[in-house]
Amino acid sequence: MLGLLLSVNLVNYLDRQVLYSLLPQIQEELAINDAQAGRLASAFMLVYMFAAPPIGYWADKHGRRLWITVGVALWSVATVASGLAATYTLLFLARAAVGIGESCYGAISPSFVAEHYPARQRGSVLALFSMAIPVGSALGYIIGGNIGQHWGWRSAFYIVGVPGLLLAFLTARLKEPRTTIESAPHSAFFSYRALFDIPSFTLVTLALAAMTFALGGYAVWMPSFFHRTWGLDLAQAGTIFGGITVVSGIVGSLAGGWLSDWALRFNSRAHFLVSGLGLVAGMPLAMVALLSRNFHVAAGALFLAEFFLFLNMGPLNAVIVAVTDLKSRSMAFAANIFVLHALGDAISPAIIGAASDAWNLRAALFGASFALGLAGLLCFWGMRHYDRDCARVQHA
């Protein structure tokens, strides 16, 4: 189960991020500016975040396996359709359709995975599962950049869309870890509203939103930053940024999960603590990477920044599982998706693109980096409420 869903999650982020390594070619062929290019990312995120809440509610009421399978198939077809788009509008609509499919998976899969494991292992397990974020993203940059360089941006979409269709057949054989489906006791609105009465959930969601504002901007614009600032071609920019992301992401994600599970022996709030320290440490390193006039210094600082920023991948997801009860857990991840993208990467690529048109890309990315420090402070604030929120779930 974990191996299959990890593989699906890799393809999930590969198909999501492949667009960004191809932006220079797409902008040239379709004659679009940076603000329009940023809106392609926002199209995906807006649909993704609005589709997640109803899907999470229905999945908690009626089961999750079907939603996972349909979602994987839908986003894979939409990825292939992105390569067929003849105009900016059609590409915009195709990327929006990718968001519908991926929302089915993003809202459901973390709780599906977590419920197969005891609480003491969830930080590490969810870190392994979340490792697909940097690895899949890196594959999107590397594969997209190299295919785009040699065969064009349309071929990249065709090639990366196919694996998801094959994986969709395998996900249909998954078994639901819950022995019964517990319907939410209230309407969707009141069920979601109740989640935000849990301080730890609210704070972890806001922390992830602040982090995602910055990282979402990096994900979209860093290959273009490498291309413009250092004169790298499409393949070089995608490969270098992808290589930095995949290595730092694997090491950081696994280290964060292991460290937070180990630290639970001494501090019950370790998931928040490890995440907050990583975010605070990552912010100045990211700023060095953007300001440095030496490419090797910039690349090294970016590697270290991403290592610290990826420490929270497993721990913060484990917080969501720990402070929400079984009958509303998919809804919790769906609500988390909605807020973190609404305040994060649904808006930051377009904002950064507009700021880049007004000033320059370096200044736009630097400004977005301050959100990382805010994310760290919200994690430290969440530590004050975590024990009480966990006790409430255990006694429910």
CATH superfamily: MFS general substrate transporter like domains
The helix-strand sequence is: HHHHHHHHHHHHHHHHHH
Q: How large a portion of the residues is in β-strands, by DSSP E? A: under 5%
Query: Mean pLDDT, nearest integer?
Result: 86
How does the helix and strand content classify structurally?
Answer: mainly alpha
Annotation, overall tally of beta strands: 0
The shape is globular
For the CA atoms, what is the radius of gyration?
Answer: 20 Å
Residue windows where pLDDT falls under 50 for at least 5 positions: none
Level-1 CATH class name: Mainly Alpha
Question: Helix count, per DSSP?
Answer: 18
Spatial separation of the terminal alpha carbons: 29 Å
CATH topology: Growth Hormone, Chain: A
CATH architecture: Up-down Bundle
Describe the structure.
The chain has 396 residues and is mostly helical. Helices cover 83% and strands 0% of the residues. It is built from 18 helices and no strands. The protein has helices at 2-21, 23-30, 34-62, 65-84, 88-114, 122-130, 132-151, 153-171, 188-195, 199-230, 234-263, 270-291, 295-309, 313-323, 329-342, 348-358, 361-368, 370-395. Helix 4 (65-84) runs antiparallel to helix 5 (88-114) and helix 10 (199-230) crosses helix 15. The mean pLDDT is 86.
Q: Which structural traits does this protein have?
A:
mainly alpha, Growth Hormone, Chain: A, 83% helix
Summarize the structure.
The chain has 396 residues and is mainly α. The chain contains 18 helices and no strands. The chain has a single domain, classed as Growth Hormone, Chain: A, CATH 1.20.1250.20.
